[in-house]
Amino acid sequence: MLELTETVQAPARIGIALVGIAQGAPVELDLRLESVSEGVLVTGIVAAPTTGECARCLTPITGEVEIDLTELYAYPDSVTEATTEEDEVGHVIDDTVDLEQPIVDAIGLVLPFSPLCEEDCAGLCQQCGVRLADAESGHHHDLIDPRWAKLAAMLPTEPNSEEPPETSGGRA
Predict the structure, then answer these.
(1) What is the pTM assigned to this prediction?
(2) Does a structural domain hold residue 108?
(3) Average pLDDT, the chain
(4) Which residue, 37, 123, 23, 111, is CA-closest to 67?
């Protein structure tokens, strides 16, 4: 048995479109490697800082991801290696195991698909794009329904004016 506590740099960006572990970010490994009858069993915790942006308002966000890792790596010519598909189990090659893909897969499963800066993030205003959390209270835009826009153009422009606007083609 070997216990390994080490901090390594992420070799590439790990994650999904909106959130992930940046390339070069510190990835903390707290692992236990045990020799079992058919191979090497790797168990432990992997933790790293995450960066990304809110899915609703695009504000930069940071966080932390932590996964529990349990992977079996089969010895060459073992029964496990002979009875499993090549991509079902990892393999011990030259007395080493490659943890990168299992870590990438596990992190991809725990990261939020739509990360939010706040649980109740209101997002962006659809008309002007301002972040609603930063906008004044009651932020809104007076929009005229396009189906009524022609009629709105016929209204007097001065609020106290009682005269209807001039129309063309009517009786004189």
Answers:
(1) 0.72
(2) yes
(3) 86
(4) 111
Mean of pLDDT values over 95-118: 93
Distance CA 124, CA 40 (A): 50
Instruction: Report yes or no on 13 lying in a domain.
Output: yes
Identify whether 104 is part of a domain: yes
- Amino acid 144: pLDDT: 77
pLDDT, one tens digit per residue, over 15-28 is 988 999 999 999 99
Residue 172: inside a domain, yes or no? Answer: no
What sign does the dihedral 99-101-102-107 (CA atoms) show? positive
Number of residues in the chain? 172
Residue 137 CB-density burial (10 A; 0-12 exposed, 13-18 middle, 19+ buried): exposed
| Number of structural domains the chain divides into | 1
Query: How does pLDDT run across 16-64, given as a tens digit for each residue?
Result: 889 999 999 999 999 999 999 888 999 999 999 999 999 999 999 999 9
- 49 close to 63: Cβ distance less than 8 angstroms: yes
Q: Is 82 exposed, middle or buried (0-12, 13-18, 19+ CB in 10 A)?
A: exposed
Distance CA(137)–CA(140), nearest Å, equals 9
Two structure tokens written together for 147: 């189906």
- Full residue range of the structural domain in which residue 104 is found: 1-158
